[in-house]
Design brief:
By secondary structure, the chain is of the alpha+beta class. It has 11 helices and 12 strands. The strands form 3 sheets. Strands 1-2-3-4-6-5 form a 6-stranded mixed β-sheet, with helices on one face. Strands 7-10-11 form a 3-stranded antiparallel β-sheet. Strands 8-12-9 form a 3-stranded antiparallel β-sheet.
Length: 328
Amino acid sequence: MELHVIERSANAFQQGLTGLQIQAVAERAFGPGTEVRSATELGGGMYNTTYRIDLAGRAEPVVLRVAPEPARQFHSERELMRAEYASVPWLAPIADLMPHVLAADFTQAVIGRDWMIQSFLPGTPAPELLGSYPKETHTAFFRQLGEITAAVHAVAGPWFGPVGGPGHARWSEAVAASLHLIAEDVESCGLEAADLRKAADAAAQGGAQILDEVAVPRLLTGDLWTVNTLLAAAPVPTICGVLDMDRTWWGDPEADWTMRMARAKQDARTAFFDSYGGAEETENSVWRRRVYEVRHLGALRLERYRLGNEAGVADSYRAVAEELAALS
């Protein structure tokens, strides 16, 4: 087997597999005697460890995605791969853009970690190709991204919160629970999380009625943006694949990371709303969006800590303080 890996330190969050482990996974998925010709670790992601696998007797490569060891996972990010697996039937409106799940094993019996094997999607990661197009054509990309997001948000679910549960009857309960989980993770890193708990209290108490105006749980992509898309070879940027839908949950579409990113700058991304549509702005909708921003900032605090970005961690406290001041 040819094994091509990304060199990382021993204490890095992402940890690769040995050739013997990859071979064991392949045999578990496709049967004894399966031969792995090559395994190439893919970059771009910051959570799961991902490989392109070439198998003897199979014309097309497959993709192996391996979750972090359970002990390395934050409580607010626990079992994301299982969440993606549970989300697949609900993501039917965009199934033509997503890889197919060929095998999955959550027993952790083979390598002590969850893993999933998916079909390999052709295309080029958008961050590598989008910049080569004239800026005036970028609107085509964001317009298509708006269509994809709208299709996902149109799916109604059984409860608020994680797709795989635990579910909540009210949106305020799901938001408060999520903020408390993130706060616990922040504190487990030795960091202060009183600001996140203050936002959780606002969601559960004074602002519960405002949050509970959201009465229908909608499917949220959780993390969809340029880094999760593949582009086809075309005259204008054209999305041909959507990857890594492991942070889906049920809630208010305005709480989705995609909506935050679409509003972040007044540039080509404003075309997102040409296809997605716009919602009427009210005092309550603005209040809700501030709570969602605190949740995003809390999750970013954890990610920046994991990456050793001390300046980014410090900046998250300033940003959360601004949102909390506006919530008062």
